[in-house]
Design goal:
Rossmann fold, alpha+beta, binds adenosine monophosphate, 444 residues, BirA Bifunctional Protein, domain 2, elongated, 8-stranded mixed β-sheet
Length: 444
């Protein structure tokens, strides 16, 4: 009989431009999340989570049909019900949709929201550019006072500082519907004179989205852009007043900023203040870690009533790359208070119950209940930096005791099983007191 040979299946692989976040990376992700959540708490922002998939129409209307994010990079599809849907390329559109849909305009204004979530853009995969990437972002909806602009810019600066990165703010004002049309006219006029030297994309932008000519990455377009008219010279009185106020507040906050007339941001919804937060890469080339701006017309454009708003988003992977480059020290990994080691069937059963009791008492644990052999288990306790090991064998079971071992000194003591939770708590408290006394002694 011919033997049936199993054919080897091909391996299914990760999608290009996407990344697994492995357990070994969780320490840095966790650290960033903690800092972001703590910043949000201190500044009064509430977490919002919107769906990854939204109607394609939302992004076309909010972000703009002619933007790269929508026209070239959006993951769009028609679902089984025939609906045109897209994976979100950014989160502000979803947040604003939710603000309108849930009647948040009836809440005390402004409404301050933040998110920490994956975004999707079918970008060319390269260093610092992924197809799924995470952003955290802060949005203030319902306030036009420029002090909010300065506060958000300061938050974008401070969060990076807290993560060990001193970045630079580059700021501009892109005006509003009163003054921008006049500027766009002057800009179009200028670039028209250089039309034949522009890249093919910019020749199209000239007709559809002239502002974007200013942030083209092609060298010859950038060179032409050097002498282009600047928005700042065209600001109306209102925009000028607000922009001056933002800069004054930033001076007050001692935030280092550079005026950059080329900052126009890639998305259509921006008005007035626009900024990016940048850092030099290893070759000294500036890379944006995040950016933000006012979007005073977006709520109304999506069907809500006129509502001023502003926000910023930061790219988590880029921040992580920067932290690694700068070798930012992370807080120590979690250390379990106790490791539970057991020998024999009876001890195994008993340790299951003890685990539960220790956790209920707020004591963090580590264990490998399926393992036998004390040496083996103590090595694991050591590897995980447990402060104490609790050891239960045949003798301890019959005596109704348990061994408590200090993992640093190796000293062991037998204690009454019934008192084990109290005993561990006592020792943990004593460690805290000892630590405080040490700090005080150093300060003296
Ligand atoms: P944007 O609103 O497009 O300026 O994006 C804000 C931030 O998100 C950028 O400054 C980057 O840090 C990050 N970001 C944008 N696109 C990508 C991408 N394709 N891959 C990784 N990070 C990105």
């Amino acid at each position: 009989m011919a033997s049936k040979k199993k054919s080897k299946k091909t391996q299914v692989q990760l999608i290009k431009g996407m990344k697994d976040i492995l357990p070994s990376e969780q320490l840095i992700w966790d650290f960033i999340k903690k800092q972001v959540f703590s910043l949000a708490r201190d500044y009064g922002f509430s977490l919002i989570e919107t769906p990854i998939v939204e109607s394609t129409q939302l992004f076309k209307r909010a972000v703009g049909e002619e933007t790269d994010a929508v026209s070239k990079e959006m993951y769009s599809f028609v679902d089984q019900g025939g609906e045109k849907l897209s994976l979100r390329p950014e989160n502000t559109a979803g947040v604003v949709r939710a603000y309108i849909e849930h009647g948040m305009l009836n809440l005390p204004q402004p409404v301050k929201l933040f998110y920490f979530a994956p975004q999707f853009r079918h970008d060319k995969p390269q260093a610092g550019r992924y197809r799924q990437f995470w952003q955290f972002g802060f949005e203030v909806i319902g306030e036009k006072d420029p002090i909010i602009d300065a506060q958000l810019i300061s938050m974008s600066y401070v969060i990076l500082q807290e993560l060990g990165i001193t970045a630079q703010i580059q700021i501009n004002s892109i005006g509003d519907e009163n003054c921008r049309p006049r500027y766009i006219k002057a800009l179009t006029q200028y670039f028209k004179e250089h039309k034949k030297d522009l890249c093919a994309d910019c020749q199209k932008r000239l007709l559809k989205n002239p502002l974007r000519l200013l942030d083209c990455k092609v060298k010859k377009c950038q060179d032409i852009g050097q002498a282009a008219p600047q928005m700042i010279d065209y600001l109306c009185e209102d925009c000028n007043k607000d922009f001056t106020a933002v800069l004054e507040y930033l001076d007050e906050l001692d935030i280092n900023y550079t005026l950059n007339p080329k900052i126009v941001r890639g998305l259509d919804y921006y008005t007035k203040t626009a900024w990016e937060i940048v850092e030099g890469d290893e070759e000294g080339k500036l890379q944006a870690l995040g950016g933000g701006g006012r979007y005073d017309d977006l709520v109304a454009n999506l069907g809500g009533r006129e509502t001023p708003a502003i926000g910023f988003a930061m790219g988590v992977e880029r921040v992580i790359n920067k932290m690694k480059e700068k070798k930012v020290e992370l807080p120590a990994a979690h250390r379990p208070d106790v490791y539970l080691a057991q020998l024999g069937e009876e001890a195994r059963k008993k340790s299951l119950r003890l685990m539960k009791e220790l956790r209920e008492a707020g004591i963090s644990i580590s264990e490998d209940v399926y393992k036998n052999g004390l040496k083996n288990q103590l090595e694991l306790a050591d590897h995980r930096h447990a402060k104490y090991a609790l050891i239960m064998g045949q003798k301890e079971i019959s005596d109704e005791t348990i061994l408590i071992r200090d993992m640093e000194s190796g000293v062991q003591e037998t204690v009454d099983y019934k008192k084990v939770v109290k005993e561990v708590q006592k020792r943990l408290n004593a460690r805290v007191v000892e630590k405080v006394l040490k700090i005080k002694a150093v300060k003296k």
